[in-house]
Design brief:
The chain contains eight helices and eight strands. It has helices at about 25-35, 50-55, 70-80, 110-125, 160-185, 210-225, 230-240, 270-285; strands at about 15-20, 40-45, 60-65, 85-90, 130-135, 190-195, 250, 260. An eight-stranded mixed sheet has the order 3-2-1-4-5-6-7-8, sandwiched between helices. By secondary structure, the protein is of the alpha/beta class. It has a single domain (about 10-285), classed as Rossmann fold (3-Layer(aba) Sandwich), CATH 3.40.50.
């Protein structure tokens, strides 16, 4: 553990970084800081207008490209844009939290579709071009999660927004675990690592679609939450420091404290479950490990 902050970031000059969901919240801070230290920073966003507005507030070489993680065709188009270039670091940051039931373009429940399956497809499609690492942003809410391999998309059970979110965040860590295993088996030097922000106040908490719930989150944000700079610090550490593959970076005391290795649930360390989820995710997205 350390008192590391974004001020300690090394130079990223000559390196290219992709950050999903980079027009607001943790993604915006992550992209802003990486651009500040010299990275060619690509904001992968669904709304180009918001992306361009965010980019205008950043220094350095910042590009905005459209990516809709709820649409596999959009993900493939985005990945195709890197056919003749490399990506040093991919930051799988974008996410939605505890939203009302909805389906993605391809018929996935929106939280597992956005938070896990979209990033799963994106990572596999970009992986031959990635030179350093994949950073996937999870959450301490993975502790509440259970991945249903028979009903990943909530088709045969009543939809519950928070358990669906917990499932997607646990899926992030299982993805991180299995991706690192596959990279090592392939003899690749690329690392898969994960991070969580603790509890940081961002626009994420205001998207639940529940007026009463939003009021509770507003109060929590005022009384308990850290700011987005603190939350993004965990991602930036994971993206820049010499840490082992399959690391899970976060605050020492779950929500606050120095940045370093974080605890994860026994379910998040289940290798058989991680492999089974990978196989299912390949079938659903039509993408597979390319190395």
């Amino acid at each position: 553990m350390s008192d590391w902050t974004a001020a300690d970031l090394p130079s990223f000059a000559g390196r290219t970084v992709v950050v999903t969901g980079a027009n607001s919240g943790l993604g915006l801070v992550t992209a802003r800081e990486l651009a500040r230290v010299g990275a060619t920073t690509i904001l992968a966003v669904r709304n180009l207008g918001k992306g361009n507005a965010a980019a205008a507030e950043m220094s350095g070489d910042v590009q905005v490209r459209r990516l809709d993680l709820q649409d596999l065709a959009s993900i493939r188009d985005f990945a195709d844009g890197f056919a003749n270039s490399t990506v040093d670091v991919l930051v799988n940051n974008a996410g939605i939290m505890a939203v009302p039931y909805a389906l993605t373009t391809d018929g996935f429940e929106s939280q597992i579709g956005t938070n896990h399956l979209g990033h799963f497809a994106l990572t596999n499609l970009l992986l031959p071009r990635i030179t350093d690492r994949v950073v996937t942003v999870s959450s301490m809410m993975h502790l509440t999660g259970h991945v249903s391999l028979t009903d990943l998309n909530w088709k045969s059970r009543p939809y519950l927004a928070w358990p669906a979110y917990g499932q997607s965040k646990l899926a992030n860590l299982l993805f991180n675990l299995e991706l690192q295993r596959r990279l090592e088996a392939a003899g690749s030097s690329v690392r898969s690592v994960a991070a969580h922000p603790g509890y940081s106040a961002t626009n994420l908490q205001g998207q639940t679609g529940n007026r009463f719930g939003t009021r509770i989150w507003d109060a929590g944000n005022r009384l308990l939450a850290t700011d987005a700079d603190f939350g993004a610090r965990q991602t930036l550490f994971a993206a820049s420091q010499d840490i082992p593959g399959n690391s899970f970076i976060g605050p020492r005391f779950a929500m606050r404290g120095p940045t370093g290795q974080s605890r994860r649930s026994p379910l998040a360390r289940n290798r058989a479950r991680a492999q089974a989820l990978w196989t299912l995710s390949e079938q659903l997205t039509g993408t597979e490990f390319p190395l």
